[in-house]
Structure formats: C-alpha cells, structure tokens
Amino acid sequence: PESPEAQLFSRQLLSSLTQVFGRNILETGFFHADPHPGNIFVLDDGQVGLIDFGQVKQISGRARETLCKIMVALDEREGDDRPEDLAIIGKLALELGVKLNDNAQEEAAAAVGMWLFDGTVENLPGGYDMQELSPNSPVRELKSFPQDLVLVGRSSILIKGLSNRLGIPWSLASEWAPIARSVLSSGYDGERSSNNQQANGDKSQRVRFRQVWRTFKQWSKGRATVVVRRLPNPIRTRLASLVVKLEDRKTRRRLVKRQAKKNT
Q1: Contact at 8 Å (CB) between 35 and 163?
Q2: Torsion angle (degrees, nearest 10) of CA 139, 17, 120, 210
Q3: pLDDT for 169-192, tens place per residue?
Q4: pTM greater than the 0.85 cutoff
C-alpha cells in the first residue's frame, strides 16, 4: 500500500471519482445517487465505471449555479477564518436551503460548506471539528438540509471518506472549481430560454473547446497509463515515485499559498 504505484493509483482513483461526480452534478445536474463501493468499478486505464443506475437524482439549474458559486468561493478564499470569505460562503450555503439551529454560531453555515467540500481544512471557523461524529461538528448545527442536495452530500462524503482512508489531503472544492467556473462562464442555465443561449453563442463555442480539451487530456492520461503499465517494474516504480512527488509538491504549494494569504 505504501509503494509509489499504490500511491499513484490512489490519487488516480480519487481524481476519477471527483471528476465523474463533479461533471455530472455541476454540468448536467443529473447524477448517480447511490455511490457506494459495490457500484464503482476501476477500469484498466485507471478511470472509474459506475453501475446500477436504479437511483439517480436531478437538481435544478438554480441549485447547480449556487453549488458552482460555492466551489469557486471556497477555492478563492484567502483564509479559513477571514470574515469576508466566511460571509460569502455562508450566504451561498443558506441560499441552497440549509437551515441552522437558532443558537448556531455565525460561522456555522460556512463551516458546513468547508466540512462538506474541503478535506484539507485543519481548523474549521467557529472552532468546529472536522469529525462528523464529534459533539462539536458543524453537522450538529443543521436544523434541516435541502432534500435535493442530500445525495450531493452523500457523494462528497464518499470521496472525502476515501481520501481520509488513503491518507491523501483532498479538496473537492479545489478539484471542482474549474468545472464550476466553466459552467458559470458559459451562462448556461437549464431554465433559461433558447434566445439567451443564442445570444451567448460565442461563449458556448469557448465552452465547447474547453470540453474537447478536457476530454483530450483525459484520453491522453488513459493512454499514458496503458503505456506505463507495459514498462519494466523498476522503471514503472521510478515514474510512479516521480509523479507522486510532483503531486505532493503541488498540494504543499497550494496549502502554503493559502496559509500565506491567511497570515497577510
């Protein structure tokens, strides 16, 4: 489990699950709503395949738009306890329909958002605990949670639990933010008229190009994985070790950057 190959596979698995649920939830609003391990297959190229679509869910365009804004706000925040950032994140969480206890702290709504979508946070605002079963968990401040988003939360908790089990700090918000920005920049809303879509034709062209580019990158990664698996074990181990080091460096750089913003 500690070998470079195993660590690289773990990151690929997390990345694949994150992408498939992020694109389904944020781009289409129609997603697999029963994401347990028995319904997830790992393919030869490291991608994931989902089975058993007996339970699916569709959320409204407005809910998707707000979710996208939350991902961007979480990704762009300058600190985990900066009042301006917490106000934006908390307001968006309440717009989704999250209802809090009457005596909840002011930071509770933002803390719930961070708890759900950013597993890299060490200290939640308001002194809340990241552990779900802790008596000081922000989850205990919830009076009600919008029914439409319960299964979105289930998907995020699955990925967060997997990252904890693998020992890999993982922020869904950071990983989903590029998808969210693409959705928001497209001006697409499932409830908007076709006239508005035509007016945004140039934007749609740009979005389609990004989608093609994203698909090409995914295909390239799959091909590269197949090629690497055919290499001799010593070379494959060295390559995996190099990739893991680069990913660790990227994660550390992101955390240091966030800490630097927090201290300024």
Answers
A1: no
A2: -120
A3: 899 999 999 999 999 987 654 444
A4: no
